[in-house]
Amino acid sequence: MLVKFRRFVAIVLVLNLLLGRGVGYVKAEEFVITDNGSGSSSEVNITQESQTTVTQSNASETSNSVDTNTNTGGNSVSENTNGDASITTGDAASQVVVENSGNTSTVNIGCCPTPSEVTISGNGSDSTNAINITSSSQTTITSNQTATITNYISGTASTGSNSANDNSGGNVTITTGNITVSAKIINAPVNTSSVSVKSGNPGLIAKISENGTDSNNDISVSFFNDTEVYTQFAADIENYLLWDLNSGGNQADGNSGGNVTIKTGDIDLEVFINNFINLGNVEVDCCEDIFDPGDKDDEPDRGGLPPSVEKDKEKDNNTSPPGSILPSAAATEAGGPGIIGLSDTSSEGAQALFFFLALAMISLGGKIVVDELFPQKNFASLKKRVK
């Protein structure tokens, strides 16, 4: 008789599963197992593996060559008589700017894994309930930067090398202009790397509560997180500057009958070299490993009774009936493809189909119960007695 009763219970459980109750498996963030019978075995196993590998390699080779020539000198006033001889040269200015930049690497991994919520509650006495979570996250980032830069700047600027020779009967004057040279070499930025990583295991809320007496409840969680960031820089920079600046070298020879004056201009040379290279920034923001085993108020019911009638009423008033999968978790908009193995159960056609399936299962169950309670051989013996 005990075997027959268990068979009938098994039929009801199958029907219960067909109606969407019992174990709900959702490929989303929330997993719910609730309101199963006594002696049931409920288990949730979640294995999450995340592996991210990023490799960036940059190599640059730059060569610049600049040659400038500025000249207002080299003038000659010679062999003049009965008058003044004068040479005045203008200013000479030269400005050279060389700027190099290259090899910039940026890696930004900014998403933390989606948290999961697992709940096993309201199951009967002598039930076995287990939640096993295994989560591993491995992130490897490699950034290689190699730069070779050669800058070569040469130039001449002259207001001198003037000559006023063999003049007579007057004054001789040579006045040269000023020379202003500005040279800038800027190698910046070269070989820069910026790595920003959010790495870690997803948050987890696991709860086993309000199960019947003598139930066996277990939560097992294993987290593994490994983040490796490698940045390598190599720079070979050579800057060459060669300038020939002249405001002198003037001649006033063999003059007579007057004053001889030579006034040379100033020379102003400004050189600026800036090498801003091999800059690495690594920022690892660990996603918080959240493990919430539930509040203390959610301890298993030691009295062996199912959830109270008051809590059942609260469940009835809730838009999500007990044992069902929350629409927010099952919806594809939540990040998952929906319920695996089940189609839409909210339409009128689906409800009608489940109704007829239920009738068929009940009829089948009734037939099995009748066959078990009143075997065919008993009817045969009864027929013989009537005869």
From TrEMBL:
Ranges where the record places region Disordered: 36-87, 290-330
Comp. bias intervals (Acidic residues): 290-300
Annotated protein name in UniProt: Uncharacterized protein
